Amino acid sequence: MRKTIFIIFLLGFVFTSCESNPNYESNLTKAKKTFELFQAEDLETQMSFFSEELVYTPPTYGAKDMSKEEFKSLLQMYHAAFDEIVYTPEVWLPGTDENGKLDGSVRTYGTWNSKDAKTGEQTLPLRSYHFFNFNEKGEVIAQGDFFDATGLMNYIGIKNTLTVENENSAELTFILELNTKGNSKKKVEEFTQYLSEFIVEREPSIVYGYYISKDGKKVTLVERYKNSQDGIQHGIDFINGPNFSKFFEMFEIESFITIGKASNEFKKFAIDNGFDIEYRESIGGFVRR
Questions:
Q1: CATH of 23-161, one of 3.10.450.50, 3.60.15.10, 3.40.50.12780, 3.30.420.10
Q2: Which of 55, 177, 257, 265 has a 20 to 30 Å separation from 152 between CA atoms?
Q3: What is the pLDDT of residues 184-240, one digit of tens each?
């Protein structure tokens, strides 16, 4: 009988060992730490746990996945809107891949409590679910949050709009002043319409627009991107695409201003590819989405 019990115990141990993931405990510690740092409002340290390629899934209805910088901006908004933020987990769980195999990812559900930063009023308990996926370096490569974000914001009188101080926004805006090199106004308009239709189907611009002077000699091009990486991708696509030579047959760049917090990677890309850019950073204002 004792032998039978021992065999059953041994088989159970072997089964459990085979089903475990060696990275889970380490990843669990990191996931918990990111929540601790968020509650301590230490975003700089918190962001060090995340990959630069992070894909964040926000809880707001209709919202698209966010980059690392956009995620950071969202967390800054929460810090501005709420005080004494505390997460009380009910459970932390290991996650699985699409085949049901434990993959080292982390899941948790629990309750958030906080106070309205403006009034000091205690908010109602907020039930939530969160996941953390990790890359081979042990960095969080994907995170998703699931809770009633719209209800929470409405409760404290903030509508379903993300407002971020300009200095904290990852967005970049390009303002290019162009001359039309003697090309006719009609020819310029036909080309810019073609180019706009070409880009809207292929590139990540949020805003892309041409504005022509009355005499047709000057054009202002305004482009806006979610972050520096999207700006770089546009540059790569433009340089290697079919319209690069056509653009400079039509226009000469008189000035190129970039507004926002351009990354060092973006600045290097611009220099390496011969773009002479004047950079201007925020001294006030906000972005509302």
A1: 3.10.450.50
A2: 55
A3: 999 999 999 999 999 988 888 889 999 999 999 999 999 999 889 999 999 999 999
Alpha-carbon Rg of the chain, whole angstroms?
Answer: 25
Q: Is the pTM of this model over 0.70?
A: no
Cβ atoms 207, 224 nearer than 8 A: yes
180: helix, coil or strand?
A: coil
Backbone angles phi, psi at 247, to 5 degrees: -60, -45
Q: What is the DSSP string of 60-128?
A: STTPPPB-HHHHHHHHHHHHHHEEEEEEEEEEEEEEE-TTS-EEEEEEEEEEEEEEETTT-PBPPPEEE
CB 251 within 8 A of CB 179: yes
**Cα distance between residue 199 and residue 211, in whole Å:** 17
Higher pLDDT, 190 or 1: 190
The DSSP secondary-structure symbol of 203 reads S
